[in-house]
Amino acid sequence: INIIPERVEFSLDLRDLDAAVRDSVFLSIIERAKQIGNERNVDVAVELLQKMPPVLCSELVQNAAKEACRQLGFDVFTLPSGASHDGVQLAGLCPIGMIFVRSKDGVSHSPEEWSSKEDCAAGANVLYHTVLSLAMTA
């Protein structure tokens, strides 16, 4: 059975390290959605709920975290992230960085998100050594 809904709503979380790139992609998406809507006689309405400036992580903090990973025998992965978390609020006060812990099946920000206690302990250990390293260089 195919069902054609009367109304569809969805959200899109669009991020990039470069605000100009993010804004350009946003405009392209809106333009294409409206074009498709016109072609199919469907109303398209867009509501911008939030637009945060990208906040870059400190190279000093990133390098300290990478070195902590190496010291602990973990592979180093660099992940460009638009995740703002508390970083947006703290970036004006101090250098920021983030340490990500594996989630089962890559699921994040969902009730199904789950990380093993071993992965959480590894993340905490990396954080400990990162902060210790940064404290020694201050």
Number of helices: 4
Question: What is the molecular shape?
Answer: elongated
| Terminal-residue CA separation | 65 Å
Low-confidence stretches: none
The average pLDDT value, as a whole number, equals 92
Query: Beta-strand level of the residues, as a percent range?
Result: under 5%
Task: Report the count of strand segments.
Answer: 0
Query: What is the radius of gyration computed over CA atoms, rounded to a whole number of angstroms?
Result: 20 Å
Summarize, please.
This protein has four helices and no strands.
Write up this protein.
With 138 residues, this protein is mostly helical. 44% of the residues lie in helices and 0% in strands. It has helices spanning 19-40, 59-72, 87-90, 117-137. α2 (59-72) packs across α4 (117-137). The longest helix has 22 residues, at 19-40. The radius of gyration is 20 Å and the shape is elongated. The mean pLDDT is 92.
